[in-house]
Amino acid sequence: MEGFFVSIMAEITAAFSVIACWRLASKRNRHFALNRFLYMTHQIFVQSVIGIAFSMMTWAIAPADETMEAKVKRVIDGDSILVVDSNDMEFEAQLEGIDAPEMKQEFGKESLEALTKMLKDQKVKLTWKSKDTYDRLLAQVHLEDKHINVEMLRSGMAWHFKRYNKSEELAKIELEAKQAKKGLWSQESPVAPWDYRKENKAPDKPSK
Hints:
Layout: H1 2-24, H2 27-61, E1 66-77, E2 80-84, E3 90-95, E4 98-99, H3 108-119, E5 123-131, E6 137-143, E7 146-147, H4 148-154, E8 159-160, H5 168-179, H6 193-199
Parallel strand pairs: 3-6
Antiparallel strand pairs: 1-2, 1-5, 2-3, 4-8, 5-6, 6-7
Helix pairs in contact: 1-2
């Protein structure tokens, strides 16, 4: 949108330049300058209409956040849970933005235990925009005033999943945990779960 407005301002500036030239031009050249001004005014109008229409379409098709309150039925591992809503329907949710160690990795069990301690039998709020290829919610999970995705990173029980999440805030929280040698960062050479899955020819985390 910024580029669009810059373009419009450039057109308007050019149009006023044409007016200035018209005032200084001879009578013979004024007809040409007037036609040029009318043409540029028309271009500005067309670009404005197209720009506004495009903006409205982009806003209209942008996915809205979906929310749900549910009870945690089971903690599957350090970054996924099974929840039940008020209609007794079950949903599996991935904690979006983080990737916990696999269960056979160092700190895999500790990560599971940390998430279980926070969420076992708790009522949580899930917010998501999309699902992964296995129909799991890619969710932000909140327990009262706690943002669970962030808490797992802050305690060093998960990695920031930078491949799919570009949040500078999460990157900063991960760095702080790493510098403080919390959780998995207490290891000398921790292996990222995505590298572990690749080395062991295990399926990678499904994408959006």
